[in-house]
Structure prediction request, 383 residues.
Amino acid sequence: MVNINALLSEWAYRCKKGYPDLDSPSDLRVLKTILKEQNITLPEQQLSLFSDEELERLTIKIKKGEEDIENLNKDEIFALLDANKEDKEFVSMIKKKLKAQPKRKDFNKVCLKANIDETTIEDTDTPGKLFDILVANDDVDNFDDYVKKGQLSLNQLKSDGVRNLIKDLSQTGISSESITKLVNYGGFEGGRGVGKAEIALALLLKDVVMRRPEKGDLTWDGKYLEVKGTSGRLGGRDQKLTGAPKILDLVKKYPDISSKVRPDLFIPDLISNGEEEENILPLAKELAKTMYPEAININDVITEDILTEPIPLRIAYQKIYVSNYVNGEGVEDFIFVDTSNRFGNYLLKSPEELISYIDKNFTKFCGPVSLKNISPTTFSNGI
Prediction:
């Protein structure tokens, strides 16, 4: 008896995309080659299905729902199913695909509207992958009904506190299994990361689309929406200080603090060592400007009255860290999504709301900024 799982694995391995594409005559010819190599013989009626002409004809018929299921040659389908009838999982998958295929064309239109296509993730048929998720969980009809009734908007989901994407998107009528896999789906677009939740938000919400061709993640109501998963950064990894702010020369003068790299610690220590606050203030601002040259809130948040207090200084530098990223990248809104322990939890904040959020949640938002960690990870312990 033919080992269908082994056959499918070999077929997938040899296909250019890493998985069989029923829309590709070349992929179907690969299957024919494998059957010949392994001396797999089928009854004449079934074997004829693998001729080049029959493969191409069958491929054209099922291509993206261009033909209704009832117009397929039932003998062809029954022969293929009969050849693999012992593999219940495979038969179930084929039935789901055949049932769902007529709605693939409408699904592709939704993807196109959301700027999701075969270039969204490099070397991947992203619409096909997303459709397969819905097929696997019998959610194609649910998705189709949801779109026809009118999609949710991110504006409807926005609130001040923490919400959960899986729970919120259950209003679509799509199963939590599909929603979880859609939220978890990501990859790389020409070397640029497409993070988790980005594609799901664009696919399922009517006011969100993939941001293309501009850099960035998503567009929400015409504005740049930045998506950050667990331990995301507002800047590059291992970003180092450039320039030589004068305050560091002062730090080196005092052996007890010369090794410290956190502004929220060495600035109060300088004053404890006798440096005048009025002299330290412009130096602290110069340091911030060197660390975060795009920030526009330095004068607002670094004031003389906080120079001796580590916590207010830590908060001030975190706010400057946010301002630097917002103004450097042009971000107009943030959505932080927990992709770890509290999967699906999220916060939706404008830059101004995020800066206010830091006042009471500075330890949750990110670790302290330092000369060696200019772009600390955000929400490393979850949302």
In short: Residues 2 and 204 are 40 Å apart (CA to CA). The longest helix spans residues 310-329. The beta strands are 163-164, 187-189, 192-194, 208-210, 218-220, 223-228, 232-233, 333-337, 345-349, 377-378. Residues 247-337+345-378 form one domain.
